Amino acid sequence: MKEITAIIRRDKVPETKTALSEIGFPSMTVQSCEGRGKQKGAMCAEMDSEMPDVFCTAVKLKPTPSSYALEHALPKIAMFVPKKMITMIVPDDKVDEIVNVIVKTNQSGQRGDGKIFVSPIEFALRVRTGERDCDAVK
Q1: CATH number at residue 111
Q2: Alpha-carbon Rg of the chain, whole angstroms?
Q3: Using an 8 Å Cβ cutoff, are 116 and 100 in contact?
Q4: Which domain holds residue 91?
Q5: Which of 4, 51, 132, 133 lies most in the core, judged by the most C-beta atoms within 10 Å?
Q6: Rounded to the nearest 5 degrees, what angle is found at the Cα of 7, between the Cα atoms of 93 and 62?
Q7: Global model pTM greater than 0.85
């Protein structure tokens, strides 16, 4: 078994979820995260604008470190780009197929398309039934 961790643009999550479901892998964990890559957060203002203003004004959200930095004229070093992190545990023989689908769905050729990490998993256990390994992640 392998763990696939994909850090992608927030607006690509629905498309990625649909593409993975279509190939038989609907199970995933999605988390909001912030970070920075080679651009050092310089694209932060542009990336934060992905969320529609209507949503931001309708819902009172806590400021992200990036939006706080922008509002308070902090140096760019304090800025991060908001992303989504998808985590999946999959059989070894399906890793390439899943990674290819994630890349195809998220690749725009622009900075900030994301990163994918693949790590080995020693074992998995479903708490409710006691199933282990591949049976536990189906």
Answers
A1: 3.30.70.120
A2: 17
A3: no
A4: 2-137
A5: 4
A6: 145
A7: no
